[in-house]
Amino acid sequence: MGWQKQILRVDLTNGSVHKEPLNMDWAQQYLGERGLATKYLWELMDPETDPMSPDNVLIFATGPLTGTMASTSGRYAVVTKGPLTGAIACSNSGGKFGAELKYAGYDLLILQGKAPQPSYLYIADDDVQIIPAGDLWGATVWRTEETLKKIHHDPQIKVASIGVAGEKGVMYACVINDLHRAAGRSGVGTVMGSKNLKAVAARGTKGVRVEDPQRFMELVKETHQLLKENAGVREMTELGTNAMIDAMQDFGGLPTRNFQEVQFEGTEKIDPAAMMETRPNGHRNLVTNKACFGCTIACGRIAHIDKEHFTIVNRKEYWHASGGLEYETAYAFGPVVGVDDIDALTFASFLMNEHGMDPISFGVTLAAAMELYETGVISKQDTDGVELNFGNAEALTVMAEKTGKFEGFGQVLGLGSKRMCEKYGHPELFMGVKGQEFAGYDSRALQGMGLGYATSNRGACHLKHDTFAEDMEDQTGKGKALPCKETQDATAALDSTGICLFTAGAWGSDNLARQVDAACEGDWSTERFVETGERVWTLERMFNLKAGFTAKDDTLPERMLNTPARSGTAKGKISELDKMLPEYYTVRGWNQDGEPTEQTLHRLGL
Amino acid sequence: MYKSLVLDADKCTSCLQCEMACSMQHEGMFNPARSRIKVFEFEHGARSIPYTCTQCEEAWCLHACPTSAIVINQCTGAKEVINDKCVGCKVCTMACPYGTINFQASSGKVVKCDLCGGDPQCAVACPTGAIVYQ
Amino acid sequence: MKITVKAGGLLYEYLPPERTANRATLEVAEAATPAQIMRDLGFPADASYLVIVNGELVPAEQRAKLQLADGDQLSINPPLKGG
To answer: Is the pTM above the cut of 0.90?
Structure first.
């Protein structure tokens, strides 16, 4: 158990809906969520498929621990071929939708083809319907969720949907669930839009059972306690993930003004203390913290914008609270575009959720556009008359809205940084890997992070490995390859359970393996669990190799490799990727062309 | 004085651990749809409010029941449904002013909070102290 | 001698009551090391920290060796992590 042992397959082209037994051999090899979805994707589609074609496959996947009392058990992953990158895309999200999909009785929802007209999928346990979207096509994420609850007379329905950005092809559109939780990266929402699918509305009443309830509940008690006692977890609860911004500023790894600098003078205006400060007019940015399903950490922030602020002074519809700043949003609307106006950042955050866009990709694309503007490559004639200077808060919010609605220069920003920079003849200004923009960590200050970015299977990503401890101790490329590889595998295993990565500071793979073992049949030792992660990682790599990627794509922008950091603890340093990468391939059991050897594939049963 | 479940909305993060713990206790599985305690969310999650039976002193559900299927547990003061006596007529669900006794289609009976016999699992599971049994 | 200490995240809780937000000026012994100062302030010894002095990273094994000078700026942050 743990698994529902049933998957839902929907062919949108001909409107057919099939419930099939979960392939338990695959479940035993790939566990669930990220891993299992990767296996299904591998079996169901040719990796060379155009990501925007109906032949791309879009999978919503829960894990065996999703919907259980294991803390943070609300996760589901959206796995597909990403249009932003052309690589395998794997974006996971919290909120309550994932657990609801599982309670409806499905481990995976597999969407194929393209609906002949804009539609949404309604799932209430066994009742599954493809319903014309009507007026919902063109609606925001927020209106879509509200409307679907009304149409189906059920406020308990959980909704995952796309905004106009996803409908019209912004390359980094998200799938947003529960108003402000996002399967954010690589354009998984863009794929959903290309399938004419506006939303998935789920209601589940079947519950989830575990193999050994008594042992599972003992482990729940033990692992909840581990989280409670962990200082890093307490920090996430009390300050949110944005606690990172002050440390990153001190460290000098905070990408600023399209990575031209690594420290930002306005950090203290957008950090957690600024979020919690009560202003002279009585306004306080932070309203409360908020948990995703099953989460005993509750790092999420609910914030509101000062009603007197220029962004919403005449727009009452934004006078309510919603998802506030997290570290990556603070970075992507703050330092990297040079803006320090916390209300503008919060408004941009609202707009991302409302229209369904990845804040990291949007912010870093805007940063590149600002650099193009300041160097005179583009002018006000290109930008709808907006002065696109670094630090312009109005430019941030105006462009966020234009991109969300796919209007004017927003259509250019919707290309993502790589395509936009190429369009204007300056590919070197794209700050990312494999077409996907960097998160808020500079590869010159955090060497292991640079290696992780370069080798992440979904393009630049900070969530697929964890070498923070090594990066804090030593700013050379030495000794980064092995921990990078090992944490990539451990993270891939974690991402295959239905659990959130933010448990990783308090739980090791052993804590996870024991919970999986108590929930599922099969003997899940820690070794087997971690090897599952390595299998998942390697299969993702195989997908990318078949899609046309080579070792040449495991690289960083020239700015990281040749332009030394200007300040901070890494002043004068560049990324030592050239030293780390060969060692990484070796510890992975790959050849120097970045291809897994026969021996490695055999060892992993691939 | 009996102990009671004290619910503090200011501390609730809407994690639903309480709903899962409740359903595990009573149904042997994690299933918020069958939980006796519910958390309601408002304004994009700015307010989360846990809500369950108050174990009214003057319990209308108990008085309304035509088969005397609802009785008072003398140890806890909880108003408990005796499954064998419940005929699923739903009169109690109409009598309850709070909507915290509900018909369950799968069993054909009504369900309500029984304070888990004096060790309410929702309070045990709550990570923030939003549900305290005191 | 006097040094200034900045403590990131929730670590400000270890600074003396006269702190301003997450900063404090401390009177410490001549040639005190970051490790001594952190011990005196009560930072748990078994936890991991990011320690920076005057903008330079101080790895764990250097923290008991590096001697601070008057006017130095010591910044102590919780470990870096993803998010």
So the answer is: yes
